[in-house]
Each structure stands twice: as C-alpha cells, then as structure tokens.
Amino acid sequence: MDFIAMPRLGVVVPPENPTAEPEFNRLAGSAAHVYAARFPATAANGLHATLESWNEALPGTLAQFGGMRLDAAVVACSASHYLLSPHGDRAFCDRLSRHTGFPVQSSTQAILAACEALDVRRLTLVSPYEPWLTETSRTFWRQAGLDVAGVVRVPAGDRFDPYRVTTADILAQVGRHRLDDDAALLFTGTGMATLPAMRALAEHTDQVLLSSNLAAAWWALRVLGKEADHPLLRRLATPSAVAAGSSQPRPNW
C-alpha cells in the first residue's frame, strides 16, 4: 500500500495528555497513521467543569482536522464521557459520526464494544482518578449493566494524577489487591501509561486486560478492517482471554 494512502485515524486528546498519541502509535503500528487534535486549554474552575467544557468543545475540536480525510476518529478522554450516561455517550458519538461523515467513538464506548465482543460482564477498575471521578466511572459501568467487582486505586505518590503514574505504581497497587479471577482488569483513563504494566501482567494471568487506549485502538482497527499486530491486541483474540465473567447476565448497553 502507498504510504500516504494508509488508513487515517484521528485521536482527540486533552491538552496536557502525554500518553495517548505514543500508545496509539504503538498499538496501530503499521496498520494506520495516527493524527491528533487537542482539546482547548481551559480556565474552568475545577476538574468537573473542565471535563464538561471538553464535551462542549468536542465538535469544534474534531473540526480542527479540516478537510483532511479521516477513516475514523477516537475521543481519547474517558473522564469527560463518564459524566454522560452510557446511552447519552453513545448518542453523542452517533451525532458526531453523522456530522463528520466518518465513525467517531469515545474510549468509553469502545470499552463497552470490547466487553460485548469478549463476553466480559465483570470488571475490576484500576483507576488513577480522584475518588469522586472513580466513583463516577463505577456508576457509568454499572449503568451499562456491568458488574464492578472491585477498584484498585493508583495514586501518583501523594496525589491522584494519571499523567504521573508509573509502571511501578500500577504493578505495586495491583499486586497489593486480591483480584477477582472472573473479572476483567480495566485500566481506566487515556492519560495513564499502561502498556508496559499490561505486558508484564499478561505473562502471569489469563484475565482479560483492557485499557481506555487499548480498547479504542481495538475498535479503530476493526472499523478500519486491519489486523492487530500488537501483542496486547492479539491477546484479545485468543480463547484464554475471553474467559472472564462468562456466567454473569449480559450487559444492557
């Protein structure tokens, strides 16, 4: 295939997020080119107001791609979409897709799509968020019909900051918890770098391992009709990675 004619994936990220583009580039590999647009920096008072402002700004942020032909786009910001109900989130993405003329998906809806495809019905959340936002995310998944078996909180030192969390932080916190073997591990948030930690965990568990960026890349490659080359994406297609939660009621998203 001509290099410039490869599929084009747009990714919308928060302005300070240092993680999304590097992870999407690694996950997409040679299957697609990744192009990013960033939400506007905001003077909103507090995180909740900032997240709301990004939802409002999303149509305009997607418009930053101008006349570039995109084959699909992902909103790489889970936190802002946790403020929406699962139904509202899906309707929002549907409106954006109709308006732009190409598929647009939030990382949260991509996670739900992956859970449905993998028959995942129970989650253990691995969260770098402030407590109120972790609880908001738990509510979102429960509203979608998923059982949240537990939460592993991952602070960065003495504060909650996804952008400062290290691989050692993730592995240390996960290692301190007795995990439910029937629940998939969901590393939530596109700003927490998760690929090295998930690669390490994959050597010792058959549980489904998902993250916001991994699920979004999985969704994008399916839409683009491309084969997954990254080992964490290939792992989602193996029989051992679809065993989690098979006895629970089907989600209602």
TrEMBL record:
Gene3D superfamilies: 3.40.50.12500
Identification of the protein by name: Arylmalonate decarboxylase
Record Pfam families: Amdase
